[in-house]
Amino acid sequence: MDARTLTIHPWEKNMLQPIERAIIAANIGINPQNDGNIIRLFLPPLTEERRKELVKRSNNEGEHARIAIRNIRRDSIEQIKKLQKDGLSEDASKDGETDIQEITNNYISLIDKHLNAKEKEIMVV
Question: What pTM was computed for the model?
């Protein structure tokens, strides 16, 4: 066993197949080796191509996070508009929308910072 091998030894033997199928379904580029008792995962060395693939995958996850934040922003602004129809003042409504936009911008910039740091980390040989 070396530093690039993971071994999964489930308590229940009947969970080997579901674990193996979940690893394959995750599409992470690792083929599990099931010997009936344990599952071995051999991690390939990180080639430049694999590093670029990991950067692409992390950017994709970052985009999913940005979309989730924007959806929350949209839902929050809709709530404010409903409250405005129910009697909330227009000034309070505009202030709320501005606050929501600032929070959205802050979290999207945090995602961008984390993605940039992760890209640098992945690309270091």
Answer: 0.69
